[in-house]
Give the backbone structure.
Amino acid sequence: MANVQTVTGDIDCGRLGRVLMHEHVFVMNHEYQVNYPETWDDDERTDDAVKKLIALKSAGIDTIVDLTVLGLGRDIRRVRVVAERSPVTIIAATGFYTFADLPTYLRVRGPGRLFGGEEPLVEMFVKDITEGIAGTGVRAGILKCVTDAPGVTPDIERILRSVARAHLMTGVPISTHTDALAERGLDQQRIFAEEGVDLGAVVIGHSGDTDDLDYLQRLIDAGSYLGMDRFGLDGIMTFEKRVATVAALVQRGYASRMVLSHDTSCHTQNVPDEYRAKNWPNWQFHHIVDDVVPALLDAGVTSRDIETMLVDNPREIFTAGASGGN
């Protein structure tokens, strides 16, 4: 079987085991950390991240896909320290996270921009995949992009098309962030298709934030996987509705088109720990194993369906990606 790049080296896709396809190790704001270092205790948070992943492995999860990219404070050196001490395999991502605008450095570079030149985003993403991130040799195994409520702004379109082109050059799969209520997954699919992407290589993320089965059916019919990947964020969509939506799609025969996750992190500077503990107590790595799987079984989803979503689909996504670019 083909190999996939992980933070600690490439492994056979058949060894990924049970995979959470949309998670984070650290979500950071580097300007605040540099200027207000009291906002981040590196050793303490690293040690705690390792403990969380050791516990996750004991709960039966073997791999997480860390979709932390530029815009979310990706620091691959910190993640590598965690990965080297963790029994959980970590797959790193490249891409860009913004809802509307790129930072000035990128806004002024590229075709039609102040300083011109080739599109820098494509080069950045391809380098992260083929050579490694930040000179570490750690190669990204997946691409990440965002289309949220503001829609396809000019900079968002640049990112989407750059991700599509980097995918075509390298073959690695694409995973996205969307505003499901605004049906942004359809915008992503349209642009990817215009660029020649096989939509079977795309996970439309945060699809579980809606129970609009007609919208979700359209995404599946176009060929993509659905990321039912925000379990635990009950303020956005209730636990019961998330479970019912997955169960309804399984009943339609689509277990083979969904992946499961939480979109949580070991630590994030964007959400205070005390707020998360009080308001989103289920937004943690064990929720799917402890609560979601039993609820799905009670809803008529079979153990085989669950293994399809946690094991088979991630393996197929990365196996197809490991075959290389066009």
In short: The mean pLDDT is 96. The longest strand covers residues 19-27.
